[in-house]
Design a protein that fits this description.
three-stranded parallel beta sheet; binds adenosine monophosphate; binds tryptophan
Length: 336
């Protein structure tokens, strides 16, 4: 038996921040040697909200370069761009036709984003989870490593698999494979620097709310200096009254590589004035090697193109097989 397969993806919308890194990419890097991995840049998802055509291609390349910079290793992993493999869009159409509308209108992320959008919500935003299900199912992924916010989309994917197999597969011969989410407890939900009850997000209008992977040391110092804290001396994890405190200690723990116990002991008598410079320095040091590698990769367009070209071919070979199986099961005549 071969290795189990992993698939995950990130949208090329804006800069990646510490939430994306600690909730997703870092975990991909950690597990990649145990699996056969596919990491895509989900550019079709990036157009579900109004986007800037002038920067979409460059943003797509930037995310692929960040995957490499964060340590995705081509020995174990394939990196590709979602829109380069047409099967993603085609499977989405097929699955659309078996997806009950209310499954989509019930999605938390849809409701939140639609609310922000006001009246002009595109059909693509509603259909976002079906496209995501297609990403996963085309590769027959066993595991999908994501942050906590994607859990509901994974559940919908699993519901779609069961529905499809029930309608179109022979008993005990499933056509689509049931994937499992892989959500790590630590880092699964990194919170905003300006409000410890809101998740760190690319779409927060305030730059001060997040630390981007490509922020300069000055920016990191400034954001940590200005981040929200409380008036209590002594720092602690897991006090529901102190969400900012828990979040900042979690960041320190994950970025320093220290254990929770070590961090709890080290910081229990500290005040914010003492802790903030330590967190800033730890963050700057953790991001430095990623930033150096990123700048080297993004300069070498030829290399990045060859990675994505190779990724497309590898991904396409698998995706097209699954798509053909799905179409056969649904009764389509296949092209001659
Ligand atoms: P997105 O930025 O929405 O494309 O998300 C890409 C990946 O980062 C997904 O696996 C998300 O679950 C994860 N992610 C996004 N924001 C956070 C956050 N604040 N904390 C942890 N993980 C996150
Ligand atoms: N919806 C995911 C997010 O915003 C991104 C994504 C798209 C994804 N397709 C995927 C994640 C497939 C995992 C697997 O984070």
């Amino acid at each position: 038996m071969g290795r189990q397969r992993v698939l995950s993806g990130i949208q090329p919308t804006g800069n990646l921040h510490l939430g994306n890194y600690l909730g997703a990419i870092r975990n991909w890097v950690e597990i990649q040697s145990q699996y056969e991995n596919f990491f895509c840049v989900v550019d079709l998802h990036a157009i579900t909200l109004p986007h800037n055509p002038a920067s979409l291609a460059a943003d797509t390349y930037a995310i692929a370069a960040l995957y490499l910079a964060c340590g995705i290793d081509l020995k174990y992993s394939t990196i590709f761009v979602q829109s380069h493999v047409p099967a993603h869009a085609e499977l989405t159409w097929l699955l659309n036709c078996i997806t009950p509308l209310n499954w989509l209108t019930d999605m938390i992320q849809f409701k939140e984003k639609a609310l922000k959008q006001g009246e002009n919500v595109g059909v693509g935003l509603l259909d976002y989870p079906v496209l995501m299900a297609s990403d996963i199912l085309l590769y027959e992924a066993d595991k999908v490593p994501v942050g906590e916010d994607q859990k509901q989309h994974l559940e919908l994917t699993r519901d779609l698999v069961n529905r499809f197999n029930h309608q179109f597969a022979q008993p005990n011969q499933p056509v689509l494979k049931l994937p499992e989410p892989l959500i790590k407890k630590e880092g699964a939900r990194i919170m905003s620097l300006t409000d410890g009850t809101k998740k760190m997000s690319k779409s927060d209008p305030s730059e001060l709310s997040r630390i981007n992977l490509l922020d300069s040391p000055d920016e990191i110092n400034k954001k940590i200096k200005r981040c929200k804290t409380d008036a209590i001396r002594g720092l602690e994890f897991d006090n529901p009254e102190r969400p900012e405190c828990n979040n900042l200690l979690t960041l320190y723990m994950l970025l320093s590589g220290k254990s929770k116990e070590e961090v709890a002991a080290e910081c229990q008598d500290m005040g914010w004035g003492q802790f903030k410079p330590i967190l800033a320095e730890t963050t700057i040091n953790a991001l430095k090697p990623i930033q150096e590698k990123y700048h080297a990769v993004i300069k070498d367009k030829g290399y990045l193109e060859s990675v994505l070209r190779h990724g497309k071919h590898k991904a396409e070979a698998i995706a097209n097989q699954t798509l053909a199986k799905v179409k056969t099961a649904m009764g389509f005549s296949l092209p001659l």
